[in-house]
Amino acid sequence: MKSNESSDWVARSLRSVWHPCTQMQHHETVPLIPVSHGRGVWLYDMQGQAYLDAISSWWVNLFGHANPRINAALIDQLSRIEHVILAGCTHAPVVELSERLGQLTGLGHAFYGSDGASATEIALKMSFHFWRNSGQPEKTGFVSLQNGYHGETLGALSVTDVALFKDTYAPLLRHSHQAMSPDSRLAAPGESAETYALRAAASLEAHLAAHADTIAAVILEPLVQGAAGMAMYPPIYLTRVRELCDQYGVHLIADEIAVGFGRTGSMFACEQAGIQADFLCLSKGLTGGYLPLSCVLTTDRVYQAFYDDATARGFLHSHSYTGNPLACRAALAVLDIFEQDDVIAVNRAKAARFSELLGEVATHPRVRNFRHTGMIWAFDVDDAAPGFATEFHHRALEKGVFIRPIGHTVYFMPPYIIEEPEMRLLAQTTLTCL
Ligand SMILES: Cc1ncc(COP(=O)(O)O)c(C=O)c1O
Fold it and tell me: N or C: which end of the chain has fewer CB within 10 A?
């Protein structure tokens, strides 16, 4: 496509599309990339320039753009049923997906939403409603973690702790308590990540000890707080929080929207702590980055508390596209790829190789807190000037790499199909940009 046609798409987009998480005026200086197509880890703009999608298109893509196996599943599903109301009807993809997710997690009841934030809303409402149905209507509070992120809708924002996203809407939000973050970077000098995590858990315990009778649930992002700038913490924190939730009679909601499906090195992050949440929120990688679908998985105990003659004791929550068959087929294709390609084991080897290739980045004089969990790498740039993230993004784009730092944190969350030459490009580009 000619350059004037491509810039015409950009101009039309800026006139008619209100882009997410964006101060639109910034696009007076920051270019918008008009994407024409994608293949594997690559995005192509309308003039044929390729960009390595180093953040998996907002952490959703697992097996590359235009993946032939997921495409084939969707094409097949299109000829059967594209969508059908899930109240009063069911279909094979949603049944199979629920059964397979149940087998993988031990949580046998799947409730579907569309985006991640709708899963957060479902989990919060379900937890509250469980306690109400169980004769404890005073359990209405939620505890989340400092720097936690659970989405942008009002309920999800109430348990989110990212000032830039939350402060403006504070008058609209319900109060929730934010417990100390287990982020290993916050450990005192000489204190191990584990000791610090247990200190954070002890402070959560103090809060639960005083307020558990009014708390419905603790919600957290297991192992990696993504939007906080890929803050990482050890599994022992999760093990301890599970014990505390049991001890104080509070639900544990694991928001694995960003970290589920292999991102932390195991299929689900909770596995590394040997725990099961009362509610597990999934989205993003669930469909391999193809279609909006989210899911809240829960226990028999929770499910049974809603199973009753009285309609109002049921969970009367819905979204029009709940359990969309196309999205469920994409998710089934994703689970097939995990099984057929032994993805978790293959990723382990890839992650080790990429970490090696990032050796020079990790020891670069501007780099602080280089960290890595599974298929996520991050580091902070201490002397980052204002505008660092935009500048870094720009410079990387010039080298054919799409990265979006969060503040002074640069991170990589590539699709799992990334190969050595692309890892090298990513490492080299990062060094050049630094
Ligand atoms: C941990 C976590 N929870 C919830 C969400 C919200 O998901 P969505 O943007 O699909 O609403 C996100 C999105 O980044 C997330 O990282």
Answer: N
